[in-house]
Structure of DUF839 domain-containing protein:
Amino acid sequence: MPKTTVTLLSLALAASLVACSPDNDQRGPGAEGDRRSSETGISADFPRQNVIVTAVCSPGNGSGGVVNVDGWEPQSWKHVAHTEFRLPDTAVVQSDKGRPATAVQELCKLADMLADARDVTAIRSLFDQDFTKMAVVTEDPETEGTHVGYLDRSGKFTDLTGNEEFGNTPHEDNAVFVPDGSAVWFTHEVDGQERVASRALAGDHKAVDQLQVETVGERHLIVVGTPGRVVLANDAHVSPDGKRLLSESYVQELAADLRAVGPDLVEKGRFISCDGGGQVGWLDNDTVLCDAKSTREGRFATLDISPGAKPGAPIVPDNDHGNNGMVVSPDGQQFAFLSAKGTVRDYYLCDTKPGSTPKKVERTGEFSTLGDTAVFIDWR
């Protein structure tokens, strides 16, 4: 056989052995997403400013699934960052009325044709600040115990609850990350009492009790502000100066050393009225954006949080769409929302001034592959 042919055959054999080697298989399922990002020139590192972040869940057939997280430049919709998290088959993805809700369920639930609202801040709390880790709840198929843990970008799942020993089966739910990624917080029951606790990623991951609550129900655990404060509520936002908490239409002043807020403390705040509905977030330290479902004809409005204040003039034109606000820009001058009419769903950016005209985000380039079920979870 000619020498050149022998050399080529040897190279081909070596390449095939590398592809089939055990080391290559140990990259984990999530590593494929980072490899594709490298090949296409899309970074796995998310910018700290001038980026809108979206999350899309593709549930598996009865188990597992994939969560894709992408960063976009708001002015051009250039694709600037991407990572993905492959959920283990034991991940709690589907809704179960018998267990507290998790934000993974909120993200992965099938969207109906009316553009049902998602709890954006709860979904955002699944990830650390830089989207390198994702908090996950898993269920043991034999004991039905639920554990909290996290996925990293390599696809590795770390179970923080650990092995079940003789005694009470663990039922830990509502796993969320603190922004710096140092700990996962969760809810569980201890001696018949509902508690909020945390497990650090370093050390032995021992549960640290943080707060007793009367009931968890279907509330989410949400991390807001910097440093992170954990709130057990449906929807929560901290004002830009970090001094006020807005949750479930209540506003309260936050003590500087307050780390965890339960439902009882939320309801001790001052009620503000968006004509019977909720809020998208803060525009500044004294003004919030009322969701479209809170205002007549789905038109959004601003609301000064002063006692007795009413929503201002409509922001968007009269329409017959189902509109849901998602995130507000860091300067409070714009917001993103999802709009549905019949079977058509589109994403829009709009100024927060009354009488503004929304600008549709065109489905072109890489943004065209995002689909209709994306949730805008961060704008920074």
User: Anything to note?
Assistant: The helical segments are 3-20, 22-25, 31-40, 103-108, 120-124, 263-266. DSSP finds six helices and 25 strands in the chain.
